[in-house]
Amino acid sequence: xxxxxxxxxAIDKPYRMSSFGALAHCRWVLTQHVGQKVKVxxxxxxxxxxxxxxxxxxxxxxxxxxxxxxxxxxxxAVLQFGxxxxxxxxxxxxNATYPTQHITRQLIDEVLPRFVGDIDQVPPSYSACKIEGxxxxxxxxxxxEVNLKxxxxxxxxxxxxxxxxxxxxxxxxxxxxxxxYIRALARDIGRAVQSGAYLxxxxxxRVGDYKxxxxxxxxxxxxxxxxxxxxxxxxx
Length: 236
What we know:
By secondary structure, the chain is of the alpha+beta class. It has helices spanning 19-34, 65-69, 105-111, 136-141, 182-192, 221-235, and strands spanning 8-13, 40-42, 50-58, 73-81, 83-85, 94-97, 117-121, 130-131, 134-135, 151-164, 169-176, 197-207, 210-211, 216-217. It is elongated, with a radius of gyration of 20 Å.
């Protein structure tokens, strides 16, 4: 492998780490092994509370980032019905509660098809979307009002993997295109069943042909790079 010339790597981003934080660590590890600064970029942000496939591009492969961002993505999401948060996930505390007695598997099966295909989705206000050059989440944290316009997105498939009626928790597999916010999807599903919902957990399991089971474990990235260099040195 030639990390200076360019490589595409897929890592399994851990919980509570930003995509930039994961990138910065991997860049530092690569720089230490190569002996010079390695150019690294990522192809699609994952929220800190989400885990899974994060594609890193080094060297000249950073030119492929835009193309990689357009690849179809797959997620496993767990939704909690009956409450909402400002960020639509567990980053913020519950800010409102709603009835859930009427929510059944049948109702869920009736509602989900509404979100498959070409739809308009309003991004979360706690997101990296820009308003006149300013990040929406920064404006929210400064106490400013944020009004984002709906964006046209495409969702290929939503599959119910599990529904716990007692806990009112729904696990779904979502296959979607660029620009889809699963947090916003959780919000909208909650509204569609006449309640509220937010994400308990989110895992990106695939980006294009890059699957999470084939990703490099972030916690062992240093060991993986060491092994790569050891093999190359032995061949020489």
